[in-house]
Write a structure and sequence with these properties.
The complex is a heterodimer. By secondary structure, chain A is an alpha+beta fold. Chain A is built from 19 helices and 20 strands. In chain A, strands 1-2-5-4-13 form a five-stranded antiparallel beta sheet. In chain A, helix 16 (510-524) packs across helix 17. The longest helix of chain A is centred in the first third of the chain and has 22 residues, at 6-27. Chain A is globular and about 60 Å long. The two termini of chain A are 43 Å apart. Chain B has one domain: 3-Layer(aba) Sandwich (Rossmann fold), CATH 3.40.50. Helices cover 23% and strands 19% of the residues of chain B. Chain B has helices at residues 40-45, 49-52, 89-100, 118-123, 138-145, 165-168; strands spanning 3-6, 9-12, 16-17, 36-39, 55-59, 77-82, 106-111, 128-129. The radius of gyration of chain B is 17 Å and the shape is globular. Classes of the chains: A alpha+beta, B alpha/beta.
């Protein structure tokens, strides 16, 4: 993992001092609400229903044990004993007092953490593949490039007041696990025919009110030009992105309005001036950063551990957990483990202070002291010996972090929704729980198999509902909560936006509707066919028919489509 | 008299800003005696203003800085207007004037200019910062001059730092 040098540390310390002064001036009445808002947002502070919410950056989802312990301390000391992992690999605390946030930031700085640019109309936390460095299908480790982008985007003087927020994701494996096509910029680290490292870049993707799959702006930018090329994209966006209407201010609207070819031409005209300039990356800098991401000290192990195989054969619950929550690893004898934050009855992504402490301890004991956050709101121990899996499972089970449901229907993505968020049109957590309870039969869940159900409480789409195989969107109709259902969205290399099946539903109807969608899949599926593949093959009509019956007119009344 | 911060010092500001009202004709609008900052449209429509010596030009967010390249060497002052402090186009305009077009005269931020922007503005090449009159007391501005630099070693290359940190300093592995 990246470790700060003196320069990184000084910047974060200076930020703590700067923000403490800004907050002091705000509390003293020297800064108006309007003037303080962008300053606090660029430090991750929203004013929510109950209290300010503090969103802490977890760069590309990577955490060390000492950092996890600090998060536990913050949960215990400044919050009500829990935090919430977000779909952008960050963590949010819902109950800190504004007056104490400078103190929290000062404590975070002692473990090389901060809340810089986790909100606001600036470049946000860069996200990436939670299996980076350990996945067998990896081409190039994306983490050094994420860190280089993190540093470049941190306090960039020209891009602090963009038309709207700006999200970057980087993936370096054959399978896209970072949803790069649904980001303002998505970068895929690749090698060209000559074996040189570079980036295939997508631009103008995004979810939210206008979901769009990003378009390719270049098939290859050689690595030295990463920053100058991104700077050219950002400069064109900063100058020409719309500022008259916040709903049309994302870069995707500019790309659509110009067309990808005209947008590319503008970026390249801009880039022609800065290419090979001082921001060109050096071999020395890339090596300096990459040195933080070399393999840990792996042991030479046999590909298969006999005791592990025996435990699987003897212990059915352990075997079920291994089947769903354990992933293959590039090294013989090792595995990557997903700790589930999707236990029914707990808000998806929520974690208590005691659980955080347990995670820190388990990371130290079993996974080289590190843990990653996934955008599906779970945690990953990336480097666990097969021989330790049984002990890790027992410890996770004791901490209620071993629900064997990764990739299953109950492993749903869910935003905080109307229970916490000021932006939400509807609650999401209680309805998500009702769906989880409806599918509480593990055998049935496993029979349904791989499926992604994503839930957002409003069209800002923090729950990524557009790219869920089934998406649920909370909508407001005359002050009442309704839920619109989409089918056929997907993340990954074939990212697609789901289609609305018809009129929306009351909260109490949602579990029934999901059950009917699943029943439709079960009726139509071929052997070993996943929900999303069946949905793609048969189209929306069979799902609509099952849900709405024969009354075709009902299906045409699309609420808030 | 209004104050502005120039190269880190608080000084009196004798310049007034001419803004066009709806329907004003840039070619016909009268620019009175005294030091005036005029919109680009007026500057372009009344070439005689350039000879006056006490008239300078201000750019709006949607103005193209390249429009000034012809007379850039002779301009002593260019202002960039921030209609709202959250409108970040002016940062790019400043950076372009300095780094692309080689402008060396005074570059002034006007409009909704707040002290919490000073660090970013300075790094984008603004050497004069003119918050709206009455926005701050002199004492507050004095205090803010100490805050022109929030970050001692920023990561990026910018107008102020020709090289990014990784070229400026030797960073230990």
């Amino acid at each position: 993992m990246y470790r700060y040098d003196d320069y990184d540390q000084k910047l974060v310390d200076e930020r703590v001092a700067q923000f403490a002064d800004q907050t002091r001036r705000y509390l003293a009445g020297e800064l108006s609400d309007d003037e303080y808002r962008p300053l606090r947002l660029q430090n991750g502070i929203y004013i929510q229903k109950h209290a300010p919410m503090l969103r802490i950056a977890i760069p590309y989802g990577n955490l060390r044990a000492d950092q996890v312990r600090m998060l536990a301390h913050i949960a215990r000391t400044y919050d009500k004993g829990y935090g919430h992992f977000s779909t952008r690999q960050n963590i949010q605390f819902n109950w800190p007092a504004l007056e104490r946030i400078p103190e929290i930031l000062a404590k975070l700085a002692t473990v090389q953490m901060h809340a810089i640019q986790t909100s606001g109309n600036c470049i946000r936390n860069v996200t990436s593949d939670p299996f980076a460095g350990v996945a067998a299908d990896e081409i190039i480790d994306p983490r050094p490039w994420c860190e280089i982008l993190r540093q470049w985007s941190t306090f960039h003087p020209e891009f602090a007041h963009l038309p709207r927020k700006f999200k970057i994701a980087v993936n370096g494996a054959k399978d896209d696990r970072a949803v790069i096509r649904c980001h303002d910029i998505g970068a895929e680290v690749v090698k060209n025919a000559a074996g040189e490292t570079g980036f295939r870049v997508f631009v103008g993707g995004g979810l939210g009110r206008t979901p769009i799959v990003g378009e390719q702006i270049t098939d290859f930018i050689a690595w030295p030009h990463l920053l100058t090329y991104f700077e050219a994209i950002l400069r064109v966006y900063n100058r020409f992105g719309r500022r008259d209407n916040m709903y049309k201010a994302r870069i995707k609207i500019l790309v659509k309005a110009l067309g990808i070819d005209a947008f590319r031409a503008q970026v390249e005209a801009e880039w022609a001036h800065t290419k090979d300039g001082p921001a060109t990356l050096t071999e020395a800098e890339v090596q300096r950063v990459a040195a933080c991401f070399v393999d840990p000290d792996y042991a030479e192990l046999p590909a298969s551990d006999a005791a592990f195989e025996a435990a699987k054969a003897e212990n059915t619950p352990f075997a079920a957990w291994v089947r769903r929550n354990v992933r293959a690893h590039k090294r013989p004898g090792y595995a990557a483990v997903v700790a589930s934050l999707k236990k029914t009855g707990v808000a998806p992504g929520d974690i208590t202070d005691a659980q955080l402490d347990t995670v820190a301890e388990l990371a130290e004991r079993y996974s080289f002291g590190e843990v990653r956050v996934t955008h599906e709101q779970n945690l990953v121990f990336a480097d666990v010996r097969q021989s330790a899996l049984f002990a890790l499972w027992q410890a996770l089970r004791d901490a209620e972090l071993a629900t064997p449901n990764i990739g299953l229907l109950t492993d749903l993505i869910c935003c905080p929704g109307g229970d916490f968020c000021n932006l939400a049109n509807a609650r999401s957590i209680p309805i998500a729980e009702a769906v989880q309870r409806r599918f509480d039969d593990l055998d049935y869940l496993h029979d349904i198999g791989d499926i992604e159900l994503n839930f957002s409480g409003c069209m800002n789409a923090c729950g990524h509902h557009h790219v869920g195989h089934i998406g649920i969107l909370g909508v407001d109709k005359n002050g009442e909560e309704w839920y619109q259902i989409t089918v056929g969205g997907r993340q990954g290399n074939d990212a697609a936006i789901g289609k609305v099946i018809g009129r929306s539903f009351a909260a109490a109807e949602v579990p029934d509707v999901i059950e009917k969608l699943i029943a439709t899949y079960i009726e139509h599926r071929h052997a070993d066919e996943r929900f999303i593949d069946t949905a793609q093959r048969i189209g929306l009509d069979p799902f609509k028919l099952k849900v709405y019956g024969e009354t075709k007119t009902a299906a045409r009344k699309v609420a808030n489509a | 008299m209004p104050k502005l911060i120039k190269n880190g010092q608080l000084i009196d500001d004798a310049w007034q800003t001419l803004r066009l009202a709806e329907g004003d004709d840039p070619a016909g609008v009268n620019v009175p005696a005294g030091q005036w900052l005029v919109p680009l449209a007026v500057w372009q429509a009344q070439p005689a203003l350039a000879a006056r010596g006490d008239v300078a030009v201000w750019l709006a967010g949607d103005d193209e800085p390249a429009a000034l390249t012809a007379g850039l060497a002779t301009l002593a002052l260019i202002a960039v207007n921030f209609p709202a402090f959250t409108d970040g186009r002016g940062y790019s305009i400043g950076a372009l004037l300095r780094s692309r077009h080689g402008y060396r005269g005074e570059l002034r931020a006007i409009g909704d200019v707040l002290r919490d922007q000073f660090d970013y503005l300075t790094r984008c090449g603004f050497d004069a910062l003119a918050p709206a009159e009455g926005k701050y007391t002199d004492a507050q501005l004095e205090e803010a001059t100490r805050q022109l630099q929030d970050f001692s070693e920023p990561y990026q290359a910018s107008v102020k730092h020709a090289d990014p940190l990784f070229r400026r300093q030797r960073r230990a592995a």
